Amino acid sequence: VLGTAGLPHILIRFYTVPTSRDARKSVMWAIGLIGTFYLFTLVLGFGAAALLTKDGLAKVAATKGNLASPLLAEMVGGGPGSTGGAVLLAIIAAVAFATILAVVAGLTLTSSMSVAHDLYNSVIKKGTATDKQEMRVAKLSAIVIGLIAIVLAIPAQNLNIAFLVALAFAVAASANLPAIVYNMFWKRFNTRGATWSIYGGLISSLGLVFFSPVMSGKVLPVLDAAGKQVGEISGSLFPLGVDFAWFPLENPGLVSIPLAFFLGWLGTVTSKEPAAEER
Known about the structure:
The chain has 279 residues and is mainly α. Helices cover 66% and strands 4% of the residues. It has 11 helices and 2 strands; from the N terminus they run ααααααααααββα. The protein has a two-stranded antiparallel sheet with strand order 1-2. The two termini are 34 Å apart.
């Protein structure tokens, strides 16, 4: 819930509607649809565990859970080799591909426009940049952000997709949500509080993930079709034998989200900057 409220999918709703009433309505629809979609993943996981054969479960385990939905769709349609199974498998693959394109496009546009407008125009050019200059910076930013995303995705391609989604939610909830909540409901909230909250939540969430079992030290058993353990593989980004994890949790949200709220409060109360209602 906290991660959904801090996603760019939600934040962009505030800038694409004409009135505050429409913004609230748009955000509520987005949160409802996105939240419902992620609740469905629980159903898909339990359905795969209940309906798939041992061979299907072995394939799911080999891909760290990433094939649960496609194999479940194939089984519901009639099983491997059936027409119904092939049709449902194709539908799931098409939906996944379209969803990935939509999410990547939305995040790339949001990020590139933030760099062009908020950083380049507002900070570097002090509001003097022209629309043509902003557009040029936005295009270059989209290319750079896309390349960075590709480079980061290559070593993470073997990680569980559901975990990567949860990690993105944790970062959004840590870096974005506290500042949004304070800005809407605390009149005293100021620039230092926002800066400390955003950067504190971002750095703490990413730092804790780096020193968590996600990066090193996690060992997963390899099972055969009969369920007998026949070996071990690394459940982390680094191979077996590499272990520098000291943070025990795989998701940093339990620590980084409260820390971001605390830093937002601390930065505000220690700043001499006047509150919004005093300016």
